[in-house]
């Protein structure tokens, strides 16, 4: 078997540990909207009425945007002065929709998207018959298709840990990302702006499961910035590539390239789909999962520390990244990681299933000022573990004017439970002080 460069998973640095807490210092820099309105809505398919997850909602003429959650819901805070602007809603496989904001924003918008009708361009179909060669061409065009300047991005990050269906840990943060151009070998940097977290380790039984990497765990899923974590020169030959069914986004045909690890390769690699603009040759979306056949090697990538009497088996490790187009150039917009592990202690009959999920959506961005740098400043470390003591769930106005990803019903329920628990704690403290 060939020796391959370590894949993305070794860089995400997930951690299963008994007890480990890192503290960090928030940054004071952020982009805030002083006088704002909030637009809420739900996005669904026009025919089936099914919710559309991860649709991008953008305030036209600005870089303000968000994504819909798994239930199709979104909320976008916009400057009051832009109340007469339009919203653009895009999702892979659907026609984009542009709507004028209504005068009354108190009522949530109901937005229906139509499936796109693919108009095949024979010239493009003839031009690309080798899927692997097309992927290489896309990687070589990173400098042309994506922003070539440093940017400062504001993003929202959410991280959850569950034991079966029970929420055991929930963390959320607004961060600033100092994003380097794809052609630049420098890594991106992150500053924490605002965060909150609550953990109930009693729901995790005797194992305290923790995620190392925080926002970096999603940032490193950016294939166009960090292609070497998946498609390095050494690993390209370890995959097979083939064309799938053509799709559409933003009015452009999109090639679907399916890739998977060759059967004779034992090193855990990936399989998934790449969505490539037929005209621009820009990667607009990627979904992929780690092959889990070699359990021992997968555990070496993810399990940093565990009790000797605990056996861990990975069940699912998958990723998604989406990009957004602005004036012919593409920028990183959203990414997600989902991991599931089966945990069993010796002399115990039952197994426990733990699920870790984290996602990050860019809500605003601007070109970085000339000669700007975060070198030497208090940016967070890529091995960070979100600190347990950052609690803000009791404050309904915690996020203020920052844009966030709308919580799904299960997360919304968890937040309400946390708020009630904090209120009870405050009441007991108040009674004890009398």
From TrEMBL:
Residues 1-30 form the signal peptide. InterPro entries: CarboxyPept-like_regulatory (IPR008969). The keyword Cytoplasm does not apply. It comes from the Bacteria. The keyword Transmembrane does not apply. Keywords: Signal. This is Carboxypeptidase-like regulatory domain-containing protein.
